[in-house]
Q: What sequence folds into this?
């Protein structure tokens, strides 16, 4: 049985980055903090989740693959595992995922439903539940969640929870 490598591409977005997801994360983190975007590459196709829902493009490992949509080249890649799924089987899975509303673009949330959540889910679909993203991706999402929780605490501390009219 043939197996095919599955890679995660990690993008370190800089203050000069013009990509949509950087703007979403900037609502939460400070400008000088590291911001990460992830995607999964298999069979020469890069899959990610963002402004247009599930997206697929040429891998952007090298600058010649950079597009108007996402002008960054991947900062680093890691082969996470291998899949037995053929390119056609993966295309079928992507088509099914695109029909479920969970991956529609309007469901994107920089804290609770972002590119990293998609990468994690897709990686497990391709390689099995034991496959995990690099720890720095999970740590980035934990940091996002902690910021959101502190916002909620500040909201209630400021007395904004008084709805007694």
A:
């Amino acid at each position: 049985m043939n197996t095919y490598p599955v890679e995660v591409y990690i993008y370190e977005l800089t203050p000069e980055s013009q990509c949509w997801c950087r703007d979403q994360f900037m609502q939460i983190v400070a400008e000088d903090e590291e911001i990460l975007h992830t995607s999964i590459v298999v069979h020469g196709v890069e899959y990610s989740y963002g402004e247009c829902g599930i997206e697929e493009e040429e891998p952007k490992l090298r600058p010649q693959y950079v597009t108007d949509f996402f002008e960054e080249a991947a900062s680093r890649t890691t082969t996470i595992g291998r899949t037995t799924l053929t390119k056609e089987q993966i295309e079928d899975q992507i088509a099914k995922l695109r029909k479920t509303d969970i991956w529609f673009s309007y469901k994107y949330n920089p804290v609770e439903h972002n590119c990293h959540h998609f990468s994690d889910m897709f990686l497990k679909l391709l390689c099995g539940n034991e496959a995990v993203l690099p720890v720095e991706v999970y740590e980035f999402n934990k940091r996002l969640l902690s910021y959101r929780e502190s916002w909620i605490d500040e909201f209630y501390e400021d007395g904004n929870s008084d709805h007694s009219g």
Remarks:
- Strands lie at 4-13, 35-42, 45-50, 53-57, 76-83.
- The radius of gyration is 17 Å.
- The first strand starts at residue 4 and ends at 13.
